[in-house]
């Protein structure tokens, strides 16, 4: 809008604004309806009950753990998909992205038949003394399963846009592949990696279906905030609304965090000759 | 202690072999798509050729002759590449950029810093050390990129049109800088500018369609070009044909000229005739007399050239004549018109092609 006022041609027909306003309302109105419903008198006691605090703490811990797991597994996947070249690459990409479109409950069932007692790896793991299903580990695995594609998609896009010209120069300067990855590639795509990690964290925080199917709902062990909200809704609607608001607040904070850093990067000065390359790199990072 | 490369890339019709002495700088020139960048990428290890071998100071860069498949990774070659764009790492300061090569080679932080400062001093950019690449002008960034490439202590420096992206003020400064740092250093520089070849290189190699069409000391190539591309660089008219007793025959054209050699040249051999556009006069009708060449041509283009006018004629404007604006007006020249190009035989140099 500001740019339009400064004389740039916007090129957006007016009626589009009407539809856009409808779209915005569609998202904001339900949130407002929920805020209206909040029982403010009992808000603090409701969200500080033992069950609520346990659920919130568990959610934050497991989401943080699954985000770390997403980073550890997602960076190599994104690199291989963006820069590698091998048969079946496109097939691998569609498989990795599958959890994006799969109903989470289906993911939960798949995980159950992999790590569950009767599962593919479950029996071997049980012999080794590891029982994963219906544990906190299962929560983390379920969250990682659904959140991983967010990090891979975000990072792969950043890697593709950045291109590999800086890497080629670094190699001719004597840097081996691991040094190039550590000192050139990852710093260049850091904004893309950060926004991917934040998205993964947010997706993990909201995970419900796969967690319930694969990890169950044990208070303090596997009952994350979304599960607690669902449970409370049946008995204590006020508590469910209050906890929902907490989740909304956390989500808003996360999204704000994710979209703040790229703008800061864009504001960096890029005078004269170096502009094209810097802008390209920053553009790739923002994505 | 030498460098040699012989490589073929079938998909690009590229087949080049080249050798450099210890402290020799070679300029590679040629039209776009002639294979100049392919050559540098093959040497740097960024492109895998179909066959060939390369060696630098006794080390094998690659050896893909039948049965063998030795390939040295780019970071172990010691062939630093300086591209048209500086490509400074945007997340590192100028000093960290220049220290990147020494650090990658295993130098300590302190030692890498000292090397970097020394090279920054060499390119007169010490005061820029703590800046980010985004805060540099194009010329400053390219100077830092030169320092970064040299700090890696390459056995062979590869420069891919380092001046092409610079504005007209920054280019001469960088050219002077390169002249200073390339002295006594082995380097290959791709350029479109004949001035770069004259100032920076000991030898020039002309690439045409993926092959070397001509090579030799820069001055010699420009004085006696044997390829159309080199003649174009030197601003000379160029006709290829067969040597005759009094000159050269090329298709229907018979040119009289002087054999530019100690002894008369054997007739029937392939040869070239070269003459400057300033030696060509334009007449509305055929002129005879004294040993002069006169032949009909159709004008394709007229363009300003210094204080005069360049008349291009013949197929694809291959021959040109420089005349005064007054003469052009008197003759009423226009593209499509038929005129006669007249050249004194003494101005046409003929030598083996």
Helices and strands, with pairings:
The complex is a heterodimer of chains A (287) and B (353).
Chain A: H1 2-5, H2 14-37, H3 43-47, H4 50-83, H5 89-101, H6 104-115, H7 122-127, H8 136-162, H9 165-172, H10 177-188, H11 190-206, H12 209-215, H13 225-235, H14 237-267, H15 275-286
Helix pairs in contact in A: 2-14, 4-8, 4-11, 4-13, 5-8, 6-8, 6-12, 8-11, 8-12, 8-15, 9-10, 11-14, 13-14, 14-15
Chain B: E1 3-9, E2 14-20, E3 25-30, H1 36-44, E4 51-56, E5 59-63, E6 70-71, E7 79-82, H2 94-98, H3 100-104, H4 109-122, H5 138-151, E8 156-160, H6 170-182, E9 187-190, H7 194-200, E10 203-208, E11 211-217, H8 218-223, H9 228-234, E12 237-243, E13 247-250, E14 253-256, E15 258-259, E16 270-275, E17 280-283, E18 292-305, E19 308-313, E20 319-323, H10 325-331, E21 338-344, E22 349-352
Parallel strand pairs in B: 3-9, 3-10, 7-8, 8-9, 15-22
Antiparallel strand pairs in B: 1-2, 1-4, 4-5, 5-6, 10-11, 12-13, 12-16, 13-14, 16-22, 17-21, 18-19, 18-21, 19-20
Helix pairs in contact in B: 4-5, 5-6
* Broad structural category of chain B: alpha+beta
**Strand neighbour order, sheet with most strands of chain B:** 7-8-9-3-10-11
Largest sheet of chain A: none
Which quaternary structure do these chains form?
Answer: heterodimer
Fraction of residues in helix of chain A = over 70%
The helix content of chain B is 10-25%
Write the element-wise H/E pattern of chain A from the N-terminal end onward: HHHHHHHHHHHHHHH
> What spatial form of chain A do the alpha-carbon principal axes imply?
globular
Main pleated sheet of chain B: 6 strands, mixed
Shape of chain B: elongated
Count of individual helical segments of chain B = 10
Q: Overall mean pLDDT score of chain B?
A: 90
Low confidence ranges of chain A: 262-287
Rg over alpha carbons of chain A: 22 Å
Rg of Cα set of chain B: 24 Å
């Amino acid at each position: 809008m500001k740019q339009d006022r400064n004389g740039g041609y916007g090129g957006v027909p007016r009626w589009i604004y009407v539809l856009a306003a409808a779209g915005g309302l569609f998202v904001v109105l339900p949130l407002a309806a929920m805020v209206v419903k909040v029982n403010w008198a009992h808000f603090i006691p409701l969200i500080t009950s033992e069950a609520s605090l346990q659920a919130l703490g568990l959610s934050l811990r497991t989401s943080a753990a699954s985000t770390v797991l997403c980073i550890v597994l997602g960076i190599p996947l994104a690199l291989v998909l963006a820069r590698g070249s091998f048969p079946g690459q496109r097939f691998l990409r569609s498989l990795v992205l599958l959890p994006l479109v799969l109903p989470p409950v289906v993911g939960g069932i798949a995980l159950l038949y992999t790590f569950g007692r009767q599962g593919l790896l479950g029996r071997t793991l049980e012999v080794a003394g590891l029982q994963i299903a219906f544990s906190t580990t299962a929560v983390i695995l379920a969250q990682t399963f659904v959140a991983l594609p967010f990090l891979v998609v975000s990072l792969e896009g950043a890697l593709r846009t950045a291109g590999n010209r800086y890497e080629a120069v670094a190699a001719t300067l004597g840097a081996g592949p691991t040094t190039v990855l550590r000192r050139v590639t990852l710093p260049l795509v850091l904004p893309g990696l950060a926004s991917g990690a934040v998205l993964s964290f947010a997706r993990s925080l909201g995970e419900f279906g796969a967690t319930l199917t694969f990890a169950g709902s044990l208070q303090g062990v596997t009952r994350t905030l979304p599960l607690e909200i669902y449970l409370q809704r049946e008995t204590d609607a006020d508590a469910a609304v209050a906890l929902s608001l907490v989740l909304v607040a956390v989500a808003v904070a996360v999204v704000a965090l994710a979209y703040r850093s790229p703008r800061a990067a864009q504001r960096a000065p890029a005078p004269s000759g170096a502009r094209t390359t810097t802008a390209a790199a920053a553009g790739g990072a923002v994505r | 202690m030498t460098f040699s490369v012989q490589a073929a890339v079938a998909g690009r019709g590229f087949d080049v072999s080249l050798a450099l002495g210890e402290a020799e700088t070679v300029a590679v020139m040629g039209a776009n798509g002639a294979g100049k960048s392919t050559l540098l990428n093959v040497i740097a290890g960024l492109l895998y050729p179909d066959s060939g071998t390369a060696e630098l100071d006794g080390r094998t860069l690659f050896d893909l002759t039948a049965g063998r498949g030795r390939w040295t990774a780019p970071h172990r070659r010691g062939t630093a590449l300086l591209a048209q764009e500086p490509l400074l790492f945007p997340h590192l300061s100028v000093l960290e950029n220049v220290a990147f090569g020494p650090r990658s080679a295993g130098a300590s932080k302190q030692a890498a810093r000292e090397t970097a400062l020394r090279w920054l001093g060499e390119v007169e950019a010490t005061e820029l050390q703590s800046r980010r690449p985004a805060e540099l002008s194009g010329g400053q960034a390219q100077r830092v990129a030169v320092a970064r490439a040299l700090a890696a202590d390459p056995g062979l420096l590869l420069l891919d049109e380092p001046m092409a992206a610079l504005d007209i003020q920054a280019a001469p400064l960088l050219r002077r800088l390169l002249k200073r740092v390339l002295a006594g250093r082995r380097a290959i520089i791709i350029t479109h500018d004949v001035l770069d070849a004259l100032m920076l290189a000991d030898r020039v190699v002309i690439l045409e369609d993926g092959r070397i069409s001509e090579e030799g000391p820069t001055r010699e190539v420009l004085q006696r070009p044997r390829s159309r591309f080199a003649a174009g660089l030197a601003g000379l008219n160029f006709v290829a044909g067969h040597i005759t007793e009094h000159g050269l025959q090329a298709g229907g054209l018979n040119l009289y000229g002087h054999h530019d050699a100690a002894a008369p040249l054997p007739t029937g051999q392939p040869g070239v005739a070269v003459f400057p556009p300033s030696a060509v006069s334009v007449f509305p009708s055929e002129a005879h007399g004294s040993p002069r060449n006169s032949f009909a041509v159709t004008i394709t283009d007229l363009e300003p050239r210094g204080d005069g006018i360049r008349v291009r004629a013949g197929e694809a404007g291959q021959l040109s004549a420089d005349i005064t604006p007054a003469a052009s007006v008197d003759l009423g020249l226009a593209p499509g018109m038929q005129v006669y190009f007249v050249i004194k035989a003494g101005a046409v140099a003929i030598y083996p092609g």
